[in-house]
């Protein structure tokens, strides 16, 4: 089987400081991978660089054997919840509809069929009764579910999610993880930036340990070991494990 | 049409154009860029005048758009080189504006351009400077350019309504689904530039900022829907134009000054009395909540 995502010698910098160096890995379709590493390890930057939202200095990325530009419509992206202004004058249904803008195309307005699709995605996320709610009136977990519903309507082959479980309630965490599991069952490829080491083994079948470069990558059982975690987190690990 | 009617029409057109553009400025958190561009278009107008020796519509607009885009590009460039965004705006616009002022004083002093006029506007002159249009008759030049600018704004806004909404709300996601976010940013900067030039004659560089920012900020407090915010902001612009004019007549004072003051009063009323986001409503909600907790 061909890999869904191939990254070769990818590097990226902020101004002149290199934040990612020589990143190489392959992700197979139908897998659920988490990207784990300490603060400042470049987790979000890795996703943004792969999606050409941040310039790379070297390297290549391909999705389903195609360049990003060609594969764009097959890729769904969920940015960090904190990256947008939730006081924006719009409601939950409208935000989900934004996931369809690419398919609706220029100079056209969303139709009823698009609205129905958006409503269905909200229903899957247990949010249909909040469709008309102004988005600042939603809790953090509900906002995250709206973001995930927006990604679902994109009906993508490959999904990237940046910290979807940060600061959400237990019910939201369960709904999001169920949804990601179902995407995986359908053969979709999912990569998630994740911060909670305690849940890695329960939630993800693959792990990519990152600290400016790939420390280890593979099936969770083989990769998520004390030895590799120590290499990723260094001295900070003891503190993190003690919390567990 | 009477003298007063032309002034009210011109001022209302300024109110609507600025009200529409202002909504996107507020939502994109770019109020400071409006401040910058409304000043630097002066440089564009002066240079256009020095090149063509004409002070007519189209040259002024081209000059203004170039100056506006130059401002946006320079601000972005300095920011990328490590200068703070706000500082970068301050440096770029004061410098470009200063060049404009110096050029007016030394090279273009006797034209219809003077610093006082460009800063404060002179709406009372608008009805005197007319052109003859087929079918319509004699119309003030400023009104013609204001109508054209409003049509351009409405067209660009409505044709790409959903793209404006998405790039303003979540630019990163917009880029990820292939919307040319940077191009739209510069198109928007061009809209701000032509709006500033068109409003220049009526209210001047300083007060156009009031028309751009204040009605939109007031509208933001009244609604949770983008389309309604656009309509409200335009209506607030028109109300400011009318009430400002009659306030100026009553007090025998500057018309543009009175109009800017009117936008401030509308904002204050909204800030206090708006149904959900106003101070009174917030206070009541806070009160209801604490009562509920006690019970």
What this model shows, in words?
With 244 residues, chain A is α/β, with parallel strands linked by helices. Chain A has one domain: Rossmann fold (3-Layer(aba) Sandwich), CATH 3.40.50.300. Chain A contains eleven helices and nine strands. A six-stranded mixed β-sheet of chain A has the order 5-6-7-3-8-9, with helices on both faces. In chain A, α5 crosses α6 and α6 runs parallel beside α7. The longest helix of chain A is centred in the C-terminal third of the chain and has 16 residues. Chain A is globular and about 50 Å long. By secondary structure, chain B is mainly α. Chain B has one domain: ABC transporter involved in vitamin B12 uptake, BtuC. Helices cover 80% and strands 3% of the residues of chain B. A two-stranded antiparallel sheet of chain B has the order 1-2. The radius of gyration of chain B is 20 Å and the shape is globular. The termini of chain B are far apart. The relative contact order of chain B is 0.16. The interface between A and B is medium-sized, with 30 and 28 residues.
């Amino acid at each position: 089987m061909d890999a869904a995502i191939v990254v070769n010698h990818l590097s990226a910098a902020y101004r002149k400081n290199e934040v990612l160096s020589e990143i190489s890995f392959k992700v197979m379709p139908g897998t659920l991978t988490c990207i784990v590493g300490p603060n400042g390890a470049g987790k979000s930057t890795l996703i943004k660089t792969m999606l050409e939202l941040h310039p790379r200095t070297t390297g290549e990325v391909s999705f389903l054997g195609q360049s990003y530009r060609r594969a764009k419509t097959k890729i769904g992206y969920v940015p960090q919840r904190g990256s947008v202004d939730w006081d924006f004058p719009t409601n939950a249904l409208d935000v989900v509809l934004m996931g369809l803008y690419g398919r609706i195309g220029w100079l056209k307005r969303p139709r009823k069929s698009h609205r129905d699709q958006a409503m269905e995605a909200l229903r899957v996320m247990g949010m249909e009764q909040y469709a008309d709610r102004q988005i600042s009136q939603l809790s953090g977990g509900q906002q995250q579910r709206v973001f995930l519903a927006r990604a679902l309507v994109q009906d993508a082959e490959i999904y990237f999610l940046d910290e979807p479980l940060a600061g959400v309630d237990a019910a939201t965490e369960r709904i999001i993880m169920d949804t990601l599991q179902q995407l995986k069952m359908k053969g979709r490829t999912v990569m998630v930036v994740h911060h909670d080491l305690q849940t890695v083994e329960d939630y993800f079948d693959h792990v990519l340990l990152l600290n400016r470069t790939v420390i280890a990558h593979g099936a969770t059982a083989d990769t998520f070991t004390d030895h590799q975690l120590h290499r990723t987190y260094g001295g900070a690990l003891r503190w993190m494990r003690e919390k567990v | 049409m009477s003298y007063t009617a032309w002034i009210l029409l011109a001022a209302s057109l300024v109110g609507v154009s600025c009200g529409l553009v202002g909504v996107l400025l507020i939502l994109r958190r770019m109020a400071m860029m409006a401040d910058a561009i409304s000043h630097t278009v002066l440089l564009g107008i002066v240079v256009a005048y020095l090149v063509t020796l004409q002070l007519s519509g189209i040259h002024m607009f081209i000059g203004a758009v170039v100056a506006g885009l130059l401002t946006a590009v320079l601000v972005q460039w300095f920011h990328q080189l490590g200068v703070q965004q706000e500082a970068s705006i301050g440096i770029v616009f004061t410098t470009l504006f200063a060049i404009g002022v110096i050029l007016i004083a030394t090279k273009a002093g006797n034209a219809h351009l003077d610093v006082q006029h460009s800063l404060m506007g002179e709406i009372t002159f608008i009805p005197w400077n007319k052109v003859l249009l087929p079918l319509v008759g004699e119309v003030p030049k400023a009104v013609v350019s204001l109508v054209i600018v409003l049509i351009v704004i409405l067209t660009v806004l409505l044709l790409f309504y959903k793209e404006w909404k998405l790039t303003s709300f979540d630019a990163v996601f917009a880029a990820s689904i292939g919307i040319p976010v940077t191009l739209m940013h510069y198109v928007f900067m061009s809209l701000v530039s032509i709006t500033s030039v068109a409003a220049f004659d009526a209210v001047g560089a300083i007060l156009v900022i009031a028309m751009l920012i204040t009605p939109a900020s007031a509208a933001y407090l009244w609604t949770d829907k983008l389309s309604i915010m656009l309509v409200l902001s335009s209506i607030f612009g028109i109300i400011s134009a009318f009430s400002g004019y009659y306030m100026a007549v009553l007090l025998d004072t500057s018309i543009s000054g009175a109009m800017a003051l009117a936008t401030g009063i509308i904002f204050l009323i909204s800030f206090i009395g708006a149904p959900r986001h106003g101070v009174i409503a917030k206070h009541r909600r806070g009160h209801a909540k604490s009562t509920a907790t006690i019970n």
